[in-house]
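Quick review question:
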């Protein structure tokens, strides 16, 4: 009997994942990760961080399924790997994705390592994604012997979470199960009722991974203090003030405090001089907000690195429709570790720090971070 440690959050998705695996004959244990709590945070947390209720829900589901439940405390590691990254990126003027970093450093690293240490064959999560393993040349030793693991989109286009899993490796995929990736959300809800799960009607979680729904600016202020700076138009004319360039992101419209009835969008940030450049809607498509190209760093390929140029599709943000693009090696002087992406259509608000994920139809090829 194969042993699976299921990452259970208290939500309906991971609960149904556990129920399905037990029904399929696996030995299942529910694992709850305590990664963040208001008590562990040095500052003030004005957010709904319901970890205690989530753990109550996990225990209730495990009792309902007749499986054991264990809690793992990764608060120190989460602070070092995810929260510190979050603040460092904003302080540098970039727009990070903490959910991708959490998957990379916590769920599919620490949690997987703990599972293997405890003698489990797999971990499982409630992600809407799929894994397909195919034969591969025996000289390729990155995955299991004679197998190549492909990461695929979840079948529910509205819930597909493959974007957040773009950093997974062959080794991680060989030890991971996504039991609900072939289902739509409505089917998952129906299964939760069928299994009699006590959290069948629980709403989906929102906000930053494990922290919850938080006011980003108020959260950042605890480490990055406010500093009044200028808002300028493309000609350099001062038209307003802001509270700190690091609190804003490229393409942002709301929260600028500019009157006049015209919608303004942020087109550039200068965190060193604390200046934000904005443009009004009538000129936004011409100056600053749309681009057909981007240079990426920290490139990761789930399978073998491709031959360039590569024609594929990509997303620069979650739930964006796939965009046709071509990938090229970096230009001279851009560094050897990155790639250049050329989009067929102009992309709105390409912001440094965002993750770009590449696709071949429903297969995730890999991704990188906008430099």
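Suggested answer, residue by residue:
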């Amino acid at each position: 009997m194969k042993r699976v440690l299921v990452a259970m959050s208290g939500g309906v998705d991971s609960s149904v994942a556990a129920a399905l695996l037990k029904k399929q004959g696996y030995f299942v244990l529910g694992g709850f990760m305590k990664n963040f709590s208001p008590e562990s945070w040095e500052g003030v947390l004005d957010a709904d961080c319901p970890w205690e209720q989530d753990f109550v829900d996990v225990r209730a589901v495990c009792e309902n399924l007749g499986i054991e439940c264990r809690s793992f405390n990764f608060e120190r590691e989460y602070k070092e790997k995810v929260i510190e990254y979050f603040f460092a990126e904003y302080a540098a003027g970039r727009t990070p994705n903490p959910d991708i970093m959490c998957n990379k450093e916590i769920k599919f690293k620490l949690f997987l390592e703990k599972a293997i240490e405890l003698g489990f064959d797999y971990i499982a999560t409630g992600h809407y994604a799929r894994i397909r393993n195919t034969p591969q040349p025996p000289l390729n030793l990155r995955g299991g012997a004679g197998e190549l693991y492909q990461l695929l989109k979840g079948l529910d286009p509205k819930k597909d979470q493959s974007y957040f899993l773009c950093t997974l490796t062959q080794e991680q995929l060989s030890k991971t199960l996504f039991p609900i990736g072939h289902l739509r959300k409505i089917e998952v809800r129906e299964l939760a009722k069928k299994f009699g799960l006590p959290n069948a009607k629980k709403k989906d979680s929102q906000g930053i991974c494990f922290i919850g729904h938080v006011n980003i600016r108020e959260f950042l202020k605890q480490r990055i203090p406010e500093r009044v700076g200028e808002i300028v138009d493309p000609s350099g004319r001062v038209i307003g003030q802001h509270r700190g360039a690091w609190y804003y992101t490229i393409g942002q419209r709301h929260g600028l405090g500019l009157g006049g009835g015209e919608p303004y969008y942020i087109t550039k940030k200068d965190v060193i001089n604390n200046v934000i450049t904005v443009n009004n809607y009538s000129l936004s498509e011409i100056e600053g907000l749309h681009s057909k190209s981007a240079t990426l760093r920290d490139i990761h390929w789930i399978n073998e690195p491709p031959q360039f140029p590569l024609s594929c599709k990509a997303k620069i943000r979650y739930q964006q429709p796939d965009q046709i693009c071509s990938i090229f090696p970096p230009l001279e002087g851009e560094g050897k570790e990155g790639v250049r992406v050329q989009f067929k259509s102009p992309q709105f608000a390409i912001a440094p720090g965002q993750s770009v994920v590449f696709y071949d139809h429903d297969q995730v090829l890999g991704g990188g971070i906008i430099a």
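Why it works: The chain is about 25% helix and 30% strand. The CA atoms of residues 16 and 24 lie 12 Å apart.
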